[in-house]
Structures are given as C-alpha cells and as structure tokens.
Amino acid sequence: MKKLLPRFRAFTLIELLIVITIIGILAVALIPRLTGGPGRARDAQRKADLQQIATALEFYADDNGGVYPSTGTNGCVSDLSLYPDYLTSAVDDPSTGNGGGSCSDGYGYTAYTDGGSAVVGYILFATLETVTASGDGIYESFTATATSNYADDIGAETACSTSGSCTAPTYVVGR
Question: Which residues of the chain have pLDDT under 50?
Fold first, then answer.
C-alpha cells in the first residue's frame, strides 16, 4: 500500500500581487501624514513659546505699572529685557531660529503706545511651517505697520515683521 504525502497549500501569484498592491496603496496614503508630523510639532512648539512669552510680558507689565517693554532695535523678542526675571531661559524657534523675519530667535515683537510714550499693547508673531495652517491667531499674510491703535492693526491683519510682509501662515498673539 502506498502512503500519501500531505499536501501543502501555498499562496498563488495573484494573491501575492493583490496583497502587495494593498500594502502599496496604504503606504502612499500614510507617507504624507508621517512626513508632515515634525513640522506640525515645531509649529505647536512655536505657539506654546509665544504663549509663554505673552505670560512673561504680562508679569513684566504688572511689575511696571501696566506698561509693556518698548520694541527693541530689531522688533524681536530677544531684544526685550525678559531674561532671567520673567523667562527662565531664552526661547528660540525650534527649527531655524529665524521664523520672525530678521529676528535671530525667530519671534517678533511689535509694541503699541497710547499715543505717547507708554506701551499699552503688543503683538508677538512667528512664521509657521505648515502652509495649510488655519485657526485662531493664524493669518495667511499681512504687513507690520505699528500704529498706536492695536485693535485696528489686528483687525487689518497687520503684525508680521518690521521689514516686510509674510509669505507663509503666521501665528499671532497680542494684547
């Protein structure tokens, strides 16, 4: 009597090609989401940094009779005297260090006066990497034109850099 060998079942070429195609389609769908992640993370860090700087400016104003620091020579946060009394360390742009126009720290600052010498308002800004960014405090383009009326400037979407207009979405925090 002849003994039968067990029969092994294997995948056909068509089944293998279908699985490879499905994996390829999933990979094409996921790669753009994975590559944009680091830029969105740096944008989130920029937003958090600006909120931290805004808090430091409020503490500064509390200690100085409600008056904020005047705009430095370059209109940058690094020109302000917030370290080390109001910020424990210098805050820099997470990628290039140059997201605020000509500012070495990447964060711009524009002061607003009451028509005299007292600074009663400000705008902080940083350029975002994510070109499709939208939401509260994000503007697509505007030009810095510091006037004494902060409300008009925010309404007209003005606040980017002292040297020109923004070409990418910019996150703005102001008071």
Answer: 97-100, 142-165
Q: In the structure encoding, which two tokens stand for residue 169, read together? A: 């979405």
Q: 21-46: b or e for each residue (b if 16 or more CB lie within 10 Å)?
A: eeeeeeeeeeeeeeeeeeeeebbebb
Please tell me the distance from the alpha carbon of residue 106 to that of residue 98, in angstroms, as a whole number: 4
Spatial distance between the Cα atoms of 70 and 81, rounded to a whole number of angstroms: 10
User: Given the structure tokens 């769908």, which residue do they identify?
Assistant: 29
Angle at 12 between CA 7 and CA 13, to 5 degrees: 150
- The Cα 3–Cα 68 span in angstroms is 94
pTM (2 d.p.): 0.67
- Report H helices in the chain: 13-35, 37-63, 150-155
